Amino acid sequence: MRYIRHFFIYLFCFMVQHTLLGSADIAGTSPDLILVLTLVITFCSGTFDGIIYGTVCGLAADILWGTAVGVYGSLYFIIGVTMVILRRVFADDSRLILIAITGVSTIVCYAGASMLTNIITGMGPGMILAMSHVPVAIILNCIAIMWIAPFFDRKSGYAA
Q1: Where are the domains of the chain?
Q2: What is the mean pLDDT of residues 62-74?
Q3: Against a cut of 0.85, is the pTM above it?
Q4: pLDDT exceeds 60 at position 84
Q5: Which of these, 6, 62, 102, 144, is most buried using a 10 Å CB contact count?
Q6: Of 109, 111, 147, 138, residue with least CA distance to 126
Q7: How far apart are CA 118 and CA 36, in angstroms?
Q8: pLDDT tens digits, residue range 37-52?
Q9: CA-CA distances (angstroms) from residue 119 to 32, 57, 71, 80, 126?
């Protein structure tokens, strides 16, 4: 049952990310809902569901809209595996920990996407341009985390 629920949540956020939020940039960027879901589902459930769906959605976004295939799929995979490891270190569902991890993950995602795109294609946004959007992206992703995380809290009855 949880696989079907996670699939439809990811599908909805994938469509919102690449339709509504794709055209409504705030200071040149928008919240990365797939990254946020990968972080929240992996952190709150402690399972590999967030990794699997995040990687699949990242690969789909790369195939449909990316300049190089595998950039976001591999980044979401790496971030998801890191979340599983961090989940074992931080046993409680602290929002402050989740917000801090979101900030670091956003930086890793932007820097990694810029570097991997440059390595694979030889072109892409420069590192300075990519990192110039990071402060706003961190704020937007943290706001998204604060909206999405309560639905996946164990305190609210969510069970993986």
Answers
A1: 2-154
A2: 89
A3: yes
A4: yes
A5: 102
A6: 111
A7: 24
A8: 999 988 887 778 889 9
A9: 22, 22, 10, 22, 11
